[in-house]
Structures are given as structure tokens and as C-alpha cells.
Fold this sequence. Notes:
The chain is an alpha/beta fold. The protein contains 15 helices and 18 strands. The strands form 4 sheets. A 7-stranded antiparallel sheet has the order 13-12-1-5-3-17-18. The mean pLDDT is about 95.
Amino acid sequence: MSRFHVPTAEEIKSGKTTDIYFVRTRQVLKAKGMDRVRVVAEVTTGGLPDDHPWGILCGVEDVARLFEDLHVEVYSMPEGSIFYPSDERGYREPVAYIEGPYGEFCELETALLGYLCQESGVATRAARVKIAAGDRQVIAFGARRMHPALAPTLDRAAYIGGMDAVSCVAGAEAIGAKPSGTMPHSLVIVFGDQVAAWKAFDEVMPPDVPRVMLVDTYFDEKTEALMAADALGARLQAVRLDTPGSRRGNFADIIREVRWELDLRGHGHVKIFVSGGLDDEAVKSLGEAGADAFGVGTWVSGAPTVDFGMDIVEVEGRPAAKRGKIGGRKQVWRCPACLVDTVQPHKQRRPQCPRCGGETEPMLKPLVADGRIVAELPEPPTLRSRVLEQIGKMTSSNRL
């Protein structure tokens, strides 16, 4: 364990982060000569936070690394896939399953679920924010609301889910991009003068850093926005409003007022960037009021986890399941045109889409085969594009 109470990758892979009952399970199975019994265990959820009808699967690459070098087979939906708790007939959808000797992987269930539950929760809320923002830019501001060890992971999930950029340096490295951000109130307060702080920022920062000035430290937002526009002129690209709730009033009206006054004085090129306690509904309403870009933090980085569980559904080739679950290995068939799913036993024939009658394709695909990662692990920009494409289809079919 490191000095910051963060497990190493080796400790995670060795099962150090597991729940103790899996350690005891493995001990019992080994003592009775049953640790090599082959099982199929699938990952499903009975529902999503906020009763949302769909989620974005994230954390698959971490799962692949977790099971690499083990004698197991892992099948999964591709990372960045939309998933549903159940198909249209009400059968739970597996997003992944593992096949192999149970003693080989039982101690990794806790880590597996941790990856998928938290990362998928963040990616799902990020997708909802991006839908609300439309073509407007959304930056993940959530690093200060998460454990620093998780910052790259959760920023990556937010970006895959649709956010346009991230503010955290390590998070930006995880997605292969430059970090995005403006300035804190502390810079203005240290200078003791807004204009002095803005001019210093403009003088010191290289040309590729956007000139976005924070305009709510001491005075009214409209007043400071006009001060910034006068101080920087054509170099000012945007003003950021991070007004605290105790001073906010009607935030949409403040945005309209700032927009009107900037335009009236010939500063129509200056964009309005807003942040501070935003969720998807706020992003939608403030965008309609005239905001051009958003910084969203806690609502995405602190997203409630998706309540995935892993259950054995087959033992030595025979269907098996606990109460409330359906036995047997399954396949999820998806219509690529309308994104409707059908869950079937894995040996049944490929079905046609129940909605449009079109061809379907299997969603559970090989990820790890006998310890080797066999699936492509796309870079975050490719995964994000996959998410945005699916969101576009959901929008066009009014299924959001």
C-alpha cells in the first residue's frame, strides 16, 4: 500500500481489494478440491440511478487488464456501448460474462464490479450532460470532488461519456489531450484587483491558452464582464460566471443580462462560460438563456454508481442460478439501426429486430481469451465518438 492509502495495480490484480467472503470461498473450494469447477458468471443490473432507461458502459479496458494472464474467457459489450437494464421483454441484459475455473477469478469480483459500476455511472451522467448541452462545450470540472487517485479514471469516463474536455492535468493525460480551464477566484483575490489579475493572466499565459476571465469575484457579473471586455478588448474570448448560490438569484436572467450588455457595447464575440453546481437540467436551461459553455463537476464525477452485480449462471456446462436470476449463458442481440436489444440463450439463432425487423448483431464479444486480451481497446476519442453516434440515434428516435 502506498503512503496515500491507494492500492497498487499488483495488489488489485492479486485480490487484495476483494471482499473477505471471496477469500474464504476460495479457501473452502480449494480445500474440497472444487476450485477448478468451471462456471459462467454474468454481470447485470436491475436498474439505473434516477430511473434512467439506459446507461453508458465504461471500465471495460480496466476489466481486460484485471483478467489478463488468468486462465479465463471474458466476453463483454464494447466500451462506450449504450446498455439497458433489460430488453424490451423484460429480460435482464448481461453487459459481460466470465467463464473459467471459479477459484481462478472469484477474488476479483469486487474489483471488476468497482470498475464497471463507478465508471459507467460517471459516463452515463456525462452523456446526459452532453445531450443537454448540444453543440455547446462542456468541460469536466470534477477533479476536486473525487479522490485524487481516481481523477484520471473518472475524467476518462466523463470524456468517453461525451464531455468535450477535462480540467485535471492527469485526467487530460489519460485521454491524450490538453487540460482545459480558466482561472480561480484566488488569483483575483491575491492581486486584490480584477483588472490587474486579468491583465497578468493575459501577459503570462502563452497564446494557445484561451483568454477566459472570471467575472464574479467582487462586483456584479455584468459590471465585471464589461470591465474585462474593456481591459482585454478583442483578446477576450469569454467570461466565466461561477456565481455562488447565495448570490445567484435567477441565474438565467443574469446570463441574459450579461449577454445583452456585452452585445450592446460591441463585444458580441465574447462567449459566456458558466459553472458552479450544474446538472443536466441546469445546462439545458442556461444554454437556452445564452450560455455558450459549461463547467460541470460534482454532478458527473460524483455520479451514483450503476448497481451491477455478478452471478453464476452456469456450472460445468449446466444452467444454474439463484432465485430472481435466469440461468444459462446468454447473448445480447442489438439492432444497429434502432438500438433495440433482444436477450437470448447463447445457442439460439440470431433474431431479427422486434421493432424494425432488421438484422441484429451480437453485443457480447470476446475480450480476454485464456489470459490474452483479444479485443481492440480503442483510445478515448474513438470511444467518445462511439457514444456520440449512439446518442444521435437515440435522439432521432425520441428514446432519450
